[in-house]
Amino acid sequence: MRRTLALLLISGLVAAAAPAAAQEPVTAQFWYSFGGKNREVTEAHIKRFNESQSKYRIEGTFQGDYFQALAKIRAAAATKTAPAVFHVIGEAMPQLWQSGLFENLELYARGPNGTNLEDFLPGQTQHTYFDYLGKPPAPLFALPFFRSTPLLYYNADMLQAKGVAVPTTWDQLRDATGKLTVREGNEVKVYGFEAPIDWWFWYAMLHQAGGTLVSPDGKKAGFREKGAEALQFWVDLVNKDRTMKRPPGKDYNAWEVTNTDFLNQRVAMIYTSTAFLNYMTENAKFKLGTAFLPGKAKQAVPTGGTFFVIARDAPTPQKEAGWAFIKWMTDPAQTISLAKATGYMPIRVSAVNSLEMQDFYKQNPNYKTAIDQLRTAQRFPFTPGLIEIQREVIQPNLEAAVLGIKSSAEIMQAAEAKANEILSKY
Fold first, then answer.
1. Which of 232, 254, 323, 343 has its CB 3.0 to 4.6 Å from that of 196, i.e. a possible disulfide?
2. Domains assigned to the chain
3. What's the confidence (pLDDT) of residue 342?
């Protein structure tokens, strides 16, 4: 009898202890938008995070390019099924914040499991990405993830063979593009320059020309004159000089064509993102160089890439899991690892100044160009209309000028009128 009671008691104790011993980690979904090598790097870091601790488990899901993922986030948010943590392009954040999608990260960042906000690199953060247009800044709702700038990539062998210096101004770029273009009769064998006809590069050139997207108070568009000047520069290179190739395709399809043309040595210089630097370095069969974008009235560049955010409507345990993941991914060790594996910029001052990164930059100076170029970074206006101006007003209409359908002035006049309609809603 005693033996039976003892066995029952032991069984009860084991049964009581079993749930604690077998407690499952809190699982949270992470939606991401990187393809190719950068997708592999992202997935490897998700795996490392899960292996680094046992309290949380992050399940990553690829959701297409930035804009495909953004559409899926909007759809999921409408049904309150958004993932606990995701990353998003900066231009969409003001509108998504206003809609109530994002969790306020202030308490997380400054809490007991917080992070050193002062260590994030200027130009990389939410508050240095946006111009709040004279209004109080929004609360902290995003931390930088993969952050980039556009770069001038050049085939150093081609430039050396033609005795061409790396251009630093629009005039020098036009001159170099002409000298680097190779023709056989009426056929262009090698173009001097190629760039996607894209909002991001246009925004850089708008500021290089001395312009701005909106008025200081954000109530009116202000890009018509300088925006037309920037667009006309492309028009002249493509149609008048016939020294710039206009890549076919929309959005990132055009970027892929540009990158492929460069690697196949069908073009001497291109504009593309620092995000592709690792890919370019591994695949170029020539001496590769990177430089600041050439300027006109000034040198200027936007930043790009994405920011981490947490969905406000996610269950609290999943939000805590999401924060633990964000904190880990933005720690110096991880941002160093991510930067070296991709070409995206490290996001921590301590990471940039570390002996590991300083040695890496000495061995790979092309990777430091984007960091140095941050001193010319231009902010985006914090207005919910920003993403609409980008996707509905500017991006769809730039190519019409290059194709000769409308003039640059006509396009920018109509675009500014439409942008004013959008801004008047907010």
1. 254
2. 26-148+304-377 (3.40.190.10), 150-302+396-423 (3.40.190.10)
3. 92
